[in-house]
Amino acid sequence: MGMPVVVDVRDSDVDDAVLDRMFEWLRFVDATFSTYKDDSEISCINRRELQVQDANPDVREVLDRCEELRHETNGYFDARPVSDDVLDPSGLVKGWSVDRAAAILDEAGVRNYAVNAGGDMLVRGRALPDDSWRVGIQHPLELDKVAKVVVTNDLAVATSGAYARGDHVLNPHTRRAPEGVLSVTITGPVLATADAYATAAFAMGVEGPKWTARLRGYEAMTILADETVLSTPGFPAHEEL
């Protein structure tokens, strides 16, 4: 996936084998979906050496979900954001793989943990000895500060913006970077969906808040270019620093 994945487990009796299984899963995802590795299935599909219908079931699942999200977001989330000839489902794979990694921890009885994948978070339980997890949302202009802190016990938090990796999110309709927006943060139960929604809403530019206002089960915070902050009414309890 081209990014560090950090797991913070607060339970005191977790078998190391559980964490080994989780990281083995993440390594499998990287080997299968990487757009940088020549032997990944995504690279093989892009070179026409592998047909989608012959790919690993996980690849087919991800691509099916990408297509669902493309329709749901009016095309602003697209697994082919740069060219119709180049497949890149990375915008979904990161969150999807973390959701599955969390399922491995859940099935093993782990109750208090946080998984951080490139700044996107999935948390469960408590940050023992504290009662809750505190998830900082980076300020898009002052990178040594956070814009908000979300306090929660069970939530996915995903942020999309250009401040960390440059203009890597494009409006698929124009093939250009969006204007008028600095970042979009989406919270909800599933990280894959939250991440895809954040990508789509950011790609929409200043029209994004109108779209996120209609989401069900997910909440949004958008920081516009003039630093105006727009949040949906149900954006989780948070505090400004």
Key terms for this structure?
single chain; 241 residues; alpha+beta; seven-stranded antiparallel sheet; three-stranded antiparallel sheet; globular
Mean pLDDT: 92
Rg estimate, integer Å:
18 Å
Number of strands: 10
Helix percent reads 25-40%
Structural class: alpha+beta
Query: What is the number of helical segments per DSSP (H or I, 4+ residues)?
Result: 6
Q: Give the termini distance in whole angstroms.
A: 31 Å
Low-pLDDT residue spans: none
Strand % is 15-25%
H/E topology pattern:
EHHHHEEEEEEHHEEE
Shape category: globular
Order of strands across the biggest sheet?
1-2-3-6-7-8-9
Sketch the major β-sheet. 7 strands, antiparallel
Structure overview:
It is a single chain. 32% of the residues lie in helices and 23% in strands. With 241 residues, the chain is of the alpha+beta class. The model has no long low-confidence stretch (mean pLDDT 92). It contains six helices and ten strands. The protein has helices at residues 16-33, 41-46, 57-72, 90-107, 191-203, 208-212; strands spanning 5-9, 113-117, 120-124, 133-138, 146-152, 154-161, 181-188, 219-224, 229-231, 238-239. The strands form two sheets. Strands 1-2-3-6-7-8-9 form a seven-stranded antiparallel β-sheet. A three-stranded antiparallel β-sheet has the order 4-5-10, with no helix packed on it. The two termini are 31 Å apart. The longest helix has 18 residues, at 16-33. α1 (16-33) packs antiparallel against α4 and α4 (90-107) packs antiparallel against α5 (191-203). 35% of the residues are buried.
